[in-house]
Every structure is written in structure tokens, then in C-alpha cells.
Design brief:
This protein is of the alpha/beta class. Helices cover 42% and strands 12% of the residues. The chain folds into two domains: 148 residues, Ribosomal protein L4/L1 (Ribosomal Protein L4, Chain: A, 3-Layer(aba) Sandwich), CATH 3.40.1370; 51 residues, no CATH class.
Length: 252
Amino acid sequence: MPDKKVKSQKSKVKSTTQKSKVVRTSTTKAVSRTSKFTVPVFNLSGKKKGSVELPKEIFGAKINQRLMAQAVRVYLVNQRQGSASTKTRGEVTGSTRKIYRQKGTGRARHGSIKAPIFVGGGIVFGPRPRKFELKLSKQMRKKALFSALSQKFIDQEISVVDPAGANGKTKEFASLLKNLDLLIKKERDNLVLYVSDSNLSTKRAVRNIRGVTVRGAQSINTYEVLANKHLVFDKGAVSNLVSNFLKKEKNL
């Protein structure tokens, strides 16, 4: 009987070692796929026009799920205005006289018509204007953004477009997005186009397309990166990301 138990334990150890080998090989494959940080560049007709090397520090960062969730929570909480307000009995308009005499009526004693017990009176413990603001340090915001962009790069949900020669018309960019199969009619806000801050004609042309949100490269945030299905970068927006996030660190 004890010999059989020892054999079963050895077989368990062998199976666990085999599983660990499988896990290790799968992780190495995932890393090897993302070792090159080059993305093809598409022109207005939807054809490949060279490639762009994305910065490894931004699109190859370590993915931190907890930090991304925290950044999304802080972003959504900060969108709350906190402007809901109710009036207390001291702020409601109305007479201050005693509504009826103190004794002899058989009813409860009352002094003001503005009391919360009456219709049109003040509200007790109602909402008042307050701030829901939460703060996140610059380093944490930057790391969360880099991990979100790295996740999008691994999922192959990033495209780079070169709008050279564009006339600033909506038809050009609509046909481009259709050629790239990035527009879905049933969904809204499924695509975000990040444009370089100097390219105003592209912003005006793309903002009329349904399902596309246009943002500047400086206003990129973790929530929009994760909430939208695909990211499209202008060729100048990639250089803006480098100048905004990487060159500042080198100067410090």
C-alpha cells in the first residue's frame, strides 16, 4: 500500500512540471511577438506607406491592471460636478409668522410654515454642493497610460495614418477608415483618432464622422484608451507623445 502512494505523488509532480513548462513557453511567445515596436503607416487611400517605430518606453511598458483600474476610477469620479443642491428651512421663501396658536386647537404645535414637515418647506439632510475630486500623482497617471497603450499594442488595436496631401474633407477620412475596416455602424464612440496639436484641418474633417472621437495628443488619458475599441494616431501625434512624456523626463 505505501509503494502505490509514493508512485501517485511522483506522477503528480511530473504533471505539474509539464504544466509549468507550457506556461513558460506561452509567455515567451507573447514577448517575442511584441519585441518589434513597428507599426505600418497608411495613406489616405488605405495603402501601406512605410512604417513607424513606436517608442518602447510608451508602448512596451509593463502592464499594471490595478493601476489602470485606479486611473479609470479617478477619471470617472472627477467627471462628477457635485452641483446638486437643496434648500433648508432657512433658505425657503415663506412667512415667518406662527401658523396657528399654541394651545387649544387639538393639533400639534407648530411655529413656521417653512418646517420640513409641510409641503413646500425646507429639506433635511438633502444634497449640498461638494467636491468629489480624487487625485493621482503624475508618475502613477503616466504609468497607467503607458500600460494601457502597451495593452492596446499587444492586442493590435493601434493604427498610424499619414494625412499628407489631405484637403481637409470628411469624405477622405471616412473612406480611409472604411478601407481599414475600423468603422462599425451599430456602435458609437468605438474609435479615437489622436491628432497632432498643429493639425487643425484633420480635426475639423474627422469630427463629423459618427463613431469617431477626435482628441489632441496632449489630452490622451487612460480611460479613453481602454474604453474605445481602436486607436488611430496621426503620424505627428506619435512625435508629440515622445516630446510630451519622454523628453521631459530626460530634461529633468
